[in-house]
Amino acid sequence: MFIKASTKPGRILAAHTAYSGHIFEVIQQTIDTPDGLRVERDLIKHAPAVAMLALTPDQKVLINREYRVGINAEAFALPAGLMDPGENPVVAARRELAEETGYEAGQISEMCAIRSSEGMTDETVHLMLAQIDESKRTAQHFDQDEFVTSQLVPLADVIKAVQSGAIGSAQSVAAVSYYLAFIEGKTN
């Protein structure tokens, strides 16, 4: 089968940190690849993250509106955040959901994990399915440098927003698509 993970990694000959910031660092590397090439690459080392497709029993999705520096504008996306060191995805999802939105998750399960750009970063985002009860909400606890507005939106409207590009975050598009392709049809 063609789609089978290779067990042979590249051999890192040299590596040094070119930049170290709050969320990521850039490592410049010289690598002998498994197919025999010697290459120079910059790697963005990034902490793992979670993104939550948080659904109510009546199929409303929790959507966040938040300023994002990458587009220098507000973006609409699923709740998401970085995992703390040693934290598993379920614990991180529960914590991030409560901190950002005030909603306490009931059942949480991992749909899949995605990588945003394997050619330049090791970032992995765990896409989580969370069940929430809209009557169970507590105070939000933002990080010092964030402010998030959350709202429950009917799933049909979220799908339209993904189709139109109004929701464009890769992790949000992937989570909604995964849910529609592999979960929704099996539960209805």
Automatic annotation (TrEMBL):
One MF term in the entry's GO annotations: hydrolase activity
Cofactor(s) needed by this chain: Mg(2+)
Coiled-coil annotated spans: none
InterPro entries, alphabetized: NUDIX_hydrolase-like_dom_sf, NUDIX_hydrolase_CS, NUDIX_hydrolase_dom
Record domain Nudix hydrolase: where: 44-175
Entry-linked SUPFAM superfamilies: Nudix (SSF55811)
UniProt keyword list: Hydrolase
rRNA-binding recorded as keyword: no
Enzyme Commission no: 3.6.-.-
Signal peptide: none
Pfam families: NUDIX
Name of protein: NUDIX hydrolase
